Amino acid sequence: TAAARRATTNELQIRGHYGQYWYTATLEIDEEAAIFVGLEGSDAESGTRKKPVRTIQQAISLAKPGSTVYI
């Protein structure tokens, strides 16, 4: 089961600004529970960071309880 497997984690760093203030946020991502959506993706792919899906609808169809969709 998913709970019995050791989670593979990575960090994703996001930088941005709000008005004159810049911020950096670091997220720890459980790759086994993550589904990635990207413009360069294809709905025939698995939704990994290296092979994202193209549409949010496909990500929803791949999602299981505990999944996180990154857009």
Spatially, the strands of the biggest sheet line up as 1-2
Biggest β-sheet strands, sense, barrel: 2 strands, antiparallel
Strand proportion, as a percent range, falls in 35-45%
Helix and strand content put the structural class at: mainly beta
H and E order: EEEHE
What is the helix fraction of residues, given as a range? under 10%
Mean pLDDT: 85
Q: How many separate helices?
A: 1
Q: Could you tell me how far the N terminus lies from the C terminus, measured between alpha carbons in angstroms?
A: 26 Å
Structural summary, described in words:
- The two termini are 26 Å apart.
- Mean pLDDT is 85; it is low at 1-7.
- Strand 1 (9-18) and strand 2 form a beta hairpin.
- With 71 residues, the chain is mainly beta.
- The strands form two sheets. The chain has a two-stranded antiparallel ribbon with strand order 1-2.
- The chain has one helix spanning 56-62, and strands spanning 9-18, 21-30, 34-36, 68-70.
- It has one helix and four strands; from the N terminus they run E-E-E-H-E.
Quick overview of this protein structure:
Helices cover 10% and strands 37% of the residues.
Topology of this structure?
Blueprint: E1 9-18, E2 21-30, E3 34-36, H1 56-62, E4 68-70
Parallel strand pairs: 3-4
Antiparallel strand pairs: 1-2
